[in-house]
Write a structure and sequence with these properties.
By secondary structure, the protein is mostly helical. It is built from 8 helices and 2 strands. The chain has a two-stranded antiparallel sheet with strand order 1-2. Strand 1 and strand 2 form a beta hairpin. Helix 3 packs across helix 4, helix 4 crosses helix 7 and helix 5 packs across helix 8. The radius of gyration is 18 Å and the shape is globular.
Amino acid sequence: MTDEALMLAVRDGQVGRLGQLFERYHMALFDFLARTTGDRAAAEDLVQDVFVRILKYRQTYRNDSRFETWVFRIARNARADYFKSQRATEQLPEGECDVPASGPGPAQQLELDQDARRLRRALMQLSEDKRELLVLARYRQMKYEHIAALLHVDQGVVKVRVHRALKELRALFLKAADGDPKTVSGDTEWIAKRSGTDLRIV
């Protein structure tokens, strides 16, 4: 069954179907919330909150709604409530942008880990809206048209904002790397990469 068909079943009383949606989306939601809050523990709690809200507000789901857009809108609202309720932590999520255990030698592995930490720190230095946009567009690889629907803006606006956010992230990453030109390539479409390991920006 499609996500939309499952959600319609949940809306119409088959609440047991929510478990299937949880299996499909809990990791994606955790990844989104961990990267945008900078707090893995909070992200775990927020994922649970999202599914509680899905159950609570299931009657508001419309037949023509795309489930992914709808559930990420709920996640954004849950995150906004979290930020209102307590001061945002400076903790960075551990284990993000993990690199493979095999392949690079110890020296290369250390460099990869350093790049991953720099990238996480750079991401967390962005404003909340820019960080969210890059997580959706680059980490989640959500289509611009779907991001536009989620944010209630035109698709062209999304493209411009992603371009600007990438440019700022690149500058922050370079600053963290002491301006080492070897750490990035290109202008705003860039990737932090070592020994074939993709740190997943672009």
